[in-house]
Amino acid sequence: MSENTQPSAELTALDRLVGTWTVTGGAEGTVRYEWMTGGFFLLQHVELTQFGQPVTGLEVIGHLHPFGEPIGADVVSRFYDAAGNTLDYVYELVGDKLVIWGGAKGSPAYYEGTFSADDTTVTGEWVYPGGGGYASTMTRS
Prior knowledge:
The structure is a single chain. The protein has 1 helix and 10 strands; from the N terminus they run H-E-E-E-E-E-E-E-E-E-E. By secondary structure, the chain is mainly beta. The protein has a 10-stranded antiparallel beta barrel.
């Protein structure tokens, strides 16, 4: 089994998300990002209201590394909500542009947002197949 000596550059780029954010737009509330000890996984704690329904949960973001297998290339996540649902995503941050694909990379369901120059806001939109979606802004608290 190969050893991870340090987290990938693609994962550590997400350090810009660490902290507590106020979310406005189609979902309202707060999210908080923190590194798990070791720095190989970023945890997102979610407390939102979306379409009038509470969305509370935990997302674990990092590279897949099943026992005895190589480390996956993409930064992926699984979101666990209080209602017992799981959702999978792929994260990609290039420059100031953050894309979160719903399911697999290249999916028609995705979020695309842009960090402000001072990293205090991320402004973007969730896009869903069939024309659905909503604007979303995160502001560092």
